[in-house]
Amino acid sequence: MTPHFRPALLLTAVAALASAAAAYLATTSTPLWAALVAPFAVALGYCAACEWTRHRLVLEEHARARRAARAEVLAVTPCCRIYEHSHGQAHAATCPTRTRSRAS
Description:
Helix content: 55-70%
Radius of gyration: 27 Å
């Protein structure tokens, strides 16, 4: 659980209640109150979405840190075209990680 989980959950619940209240007020004889409550519900929904996004970002950051701690390679990208076509056995002359190719 991250520090953003509880506020996100609370904001989502309050936004849902405010939306329900705005819908109820719109169907009764007080549409003016519905017009006042509806923007409040939209603002709460936006805040809830922001908190959920922060929550997911923190979880992803934690997952990346765990993978890095286990020394997992996240993505292998070839450093040059020769490396790519020689299946890792040779590097181009301009490659910054140039090493001698291994003789098979």
